[in-house]
Task: inverse folding
């Protein structure tokens, strides 16, 4: 898991989820996101790389719903997600529905996800 500012000219935050994501990793990411969002102002985009992630365990899914709600409250306009497998994509769709996240776009590759935000 990592969180970083991807582009300072166009405020884009990058979040990378790898392997099996634990609730503790989501909490760590949330702390980093809250700190980073202060430098991005009240409007930013998020690039999420899930290509190397396994499915979310049930306890992590609940944390991810809260995570998406928090991102929206902090000022996220759009999320562009590079999704690896069909299971992760199905889970992400359900999580987005549960968090009422309407501005998420999914892509097969990282380059497609990034290009969408840079348009």
Result:
């Amino acid at each position: 898991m990592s969180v970083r500012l991807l582009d300072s000219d166009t405020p884009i935050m990058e979040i990378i989820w790898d392997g099996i994501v634990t609730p503790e990793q989501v909490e760590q990411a949330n702390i980093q996101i809250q700190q980073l969002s202060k430098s991005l102002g009240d409007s930013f985009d998020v690039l999420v790389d899930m290509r190397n992630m396994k499915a979310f365990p049930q306890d992590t899914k609940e944390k991810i719903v809260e995570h998406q709600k928090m991102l929206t409250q902090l000022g996220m306009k759009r999320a562009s997600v590079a999704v690896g497998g069909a299971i992760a994509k199905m889970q992400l769709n359900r999580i987005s529905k549960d968090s009422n996240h309407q501005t998420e776009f999914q892509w097969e590759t990282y380059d497609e996800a990034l290009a969408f935000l840079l348009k």
